[in-house]
Amino acid sequence: MNDHRMTVRGPDLARWIFVAALLLIGLGLYFAFAPSSEPPAPPSASEGR
Question: What is the distance in angstroms between the CA of the first residue and the CA of the last residue of the chain?
């Protein structure tokens, strides 16, 4: 069998941690401010017809 282990270097790991942190911050801000925000456009008069 192949016992080759993939090693993750420091800069690569730091980059993925940074990306994950940005995603988590964005999701947190979305759920914090989405309920109180106004819709960008008014709803149409004939939805679904």
Answer: 61
Report the SS3 class of residue 17: helix
| Region label for 48, one of left (φ > 0), alpha (ψ between -120 and 50) or beta (otherwise) | left
The pLDDT tens digits for 2-31 are 677 777 788 888 999 999 999 999 999 999
Q: Looking at this protein, which amino acid is placed at residue 39?
A: P
> For residues 17 and 11, what is the distance between their CA atoms, to the nearest angstrom?
10
What is the model's pTM? 0.60
The single-letter DSSP state of residue 18 is: H
The greatest distance separating any two alpha carbons of the chain, rounded to the nearest whole angstrom, comes to 65
